[in-house]
Specification:
The structure is a homodimer. The first copy, chain A, contains three helices and four strands; from the N terminus they run βαββααβ. Chain A is of the alpha+beta class. In chain A, strands 2-3-1-4 form a four-stranded antiparallel β-sheet. The longest helix of chain A is centred in the N-terminal third of the chain and has 17 residues, at 14-30. Chain A is globular and about 40 Å long. The termini of chain A are close together. At the A-B interface, strand 1, strand 2 and strand 4 of A face strand 1, strand 2 and strand 4 of B.
Amino acid sequence: MVKLVVTYGAPDDPPAFDQHYASTHVPLVEKIPNLRRFEAGKVLGTPDGSPAPFYFMAELWFDSAQDLEAAMGSAEGQAAGADVGNFATGGATLMIAEA
Amino acid sequence: MVKLVVTYGAPDDPPAFDQHYASTHVPLVEKIPNLRRFEAGKVLGTPDGSPAPFYFMAELWFDSAQDLEAAMGSAEGQAAGADVGNFATGGATLMIAEA
């Protein structure tokens, strides 16, 4: 499997981020085709107490890189991706990893 | 649940990293008490083709923050943590996130 990992920097308005993420973004992600597993949540801290590098993290698992690519190119994937600009005021970094 | 997320920067000697990770580090991680799920793999790239921010990524899931803390404080957790210095020549960043 492979996963798309999205890390979000600290937003300008955390409650607004949280509200948009839960009520608008999650439903868009859940419509993405080929999605096998979805996990998202706040970064709580670091083991040594140093500042956490991100505010929030999401992961989307797919059976293969081909499935991930097709998902991101789909209308649903494009809609979810476009929505990121609506709430990720602290930026979003995406990477693809083996899973 | 919560997860410990470990991101590794590009090592000086990738084959040596891979070999040590698979043959030594994975067995140490698998001995950590309370561990519910473990996933580790290479960062393959980014959706837009920009350079990947990390070389490798691992995640360890636990039922609760208390379980994670106990696991990291255990002899097995300490042994796995100490081993990171033996292969993570590109550095390792740890964070704890909701899962």
